[in-house]
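Lecture 7 notes: from sequence to structure.

We start with a single chain of 283 residues. Read the sequence below before looking at the structure.
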Amino acid sequence: MNVLPYVLTFLAGLWAGWVTNVLAERFPVVEKPLFSPLRCVRSGEKLGFLEYIPVIGYMLQKGKCRHCGKSLPWRFPLVEILLALAFALAWPNYETDPFYVYLINAFYIFLLAVIALIDWRYRLIYPVMIWGGVVVGIIVALVSGPHPDNLLPDGIISVGLGVALGGGMFYLIYLVALAIYRRRALGFGDVLLAILIGVILGFPRVISGLFLGAVLGGVVAVGFFFFGRKRWRDFIPYGTTLCIGVILIIIWGEAVWHWGPFGMITNLLQLFFYVILRVIFNQ
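Now the structure, written as tokens:
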């Protein structure tokens, strides 16, 4: 087995995680310029060169600011390691395809990680990130052509159906929840995120992505409730769990969405929507 691609993708993932942390730390805060020199989040002091290095910078400081001695957030090395693992674990699915297929999916993993981390920390999903990903996905669908192997959406029609299904379903949930509860039980950012997921996965994979994200969201909600962190009507970061679900599908594909009960349910959903589409087009 050639380990070099795994080492290189792991290192690339470390730096992608580093950038994810920087964007999540600065993008939502107006007072923090996006491209200014990095500073310690505790003391505000400028970081040294070695402290820029993913994971190693955290370890060199022993998890504490060298100026004020306060503990640094553990999420920094955790996000970097998780992105590194995601990049490396995704490689086997794409090593026999043109390299651009892997690069596009690695970009999607990175983008979804940024959106997930910001939503987790600030309860915000920025439309500029959504539309940026949508533009990239549409260009890819137009230029790269069909992909029956499901490593990318199978052409622009697959993308269009994915957007209609994902965005339409979530917009309907948004309106129904607003009508029943007289409050937004689902943020409109989640609707935009469902559109992006439709572009990234296309049809029918968008069904699996939304389903897996919803399952993960339910698990998180139940966990928060039983550990006393949230009440039933409190905010739950569904945007984060949706992003994680899509990342898992990008990494493992069929192995995730056809595992155990997931496979049975998603296959039934796919069959249902296929029948609807056949009826519509036959008419």
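DSSP finds eleven helices and no strands in the chain. Keep this in mind for problem set 3.
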